[in-house]
Amino acid sequence: MSKLLILVVEDDTSVRNLITTTLKAHEYRYLTAPDGQSAILEASSHNPDIVLLDLGLPDMDGVEIIKKIRTWSNMPIIVISARSEDTDKIDALDAGADDYLTKPFSVEELLARLRVTQRRLLMMQKVSPAEAVVFVNGKLRVDYAAGCAYLNEEELHLTPIEYKLLCLLTRNIGKVLTHTFLTQSIWGSSWDNDIASLRVFMATLRKKIEKEPNSPQYIQTHIGVGYRMLKVD
Q: Are residues 189 and 198 in contact, defined by beta-carbon separation less than 8 angstroms?
């Protein structure tokens, strides 16, 4: 399998060099952009497989870049930012980011996120006929073969991680899935950052499928343990 083409959008030279050196050492192809305008140009011109995006750029906020890219492409976007507040993460995810990595980060964690995204891209390209199943629970419907989810017959615009979370929950309806199980299934690890990211992704997923997120109908929280998909009549 050929290595992915990755667009690195980062204005800090030292961080950009760290990322590109890591990518080169692991035989990934890459492009770089130091600001928002050049990022949009590179993304539209070269159609990279993955974008690694810093939010704090000199000419525009990274969230605006996400929104612009989402007008023409679903290419995976992994945010790498020093902004660690849940509100910042939710804003980026709501705009269309697929994952969020907080600075400072380890090289191993970055590579793990890239591997997970790469596997996800391969899975999207290879859908088994055996998986052509539609899950229905109340007004929620998940078409596993098409990779789409619907609520009240309206398609939900989910990020790849939100969709994978939903699939894990629906395929295990009635079972409590632990934090460790979920983070291992999504990121292949259970770092503290993964638990924090899981909480954020679950919050954004709930906003999209729950009529009243504070009084959930579909996803039940088991504090300190994990989450469970409830059966809805």
A: no
The conformation of residue 188, written as its DSSP 8-state character, comes to S
pLDDT tens digits, one per residue of 120-134: 777 665 544 444 488
First to last CA, the chain: 45
Task: Tell whether 97 and 154 lie within a shared domain.
Answer: no
Give the pLDDT score at 168: 92
Q: Are residues 12 and 111 in the same domain?
A: yes
Tokens of 25: 């050492």
Rounded Cα distance, 233 and 227, in Å:
19
Domains: count for the chain: 2
SS3 content of the chain, % helix, strand, coil (to 5): 45, 20, 35
What is the model's pLDDT at position 128? 46
Give phi and psi for 163, each to the nearest 5. Answer: -65, -40
Lowest mean pLDDT among 7-21, 22-36, 53-67, 219-233: 219-233
SS3 41: helix
Which one, of 77, 210, 224, 48, lies nearest residue 139 by Cα? 210
Q: Residue 214 is encoded by which pair of tokens?
A: 């504070």
How many Cα neighbours within 13 Å face the side chain of 38?
12
Query: Do residues 140 and 113 both lie within one domain?
Result: no
Strand, coil or helix: 93: helix
Which structural domain range is residue 32 located in? Answer: 5-125
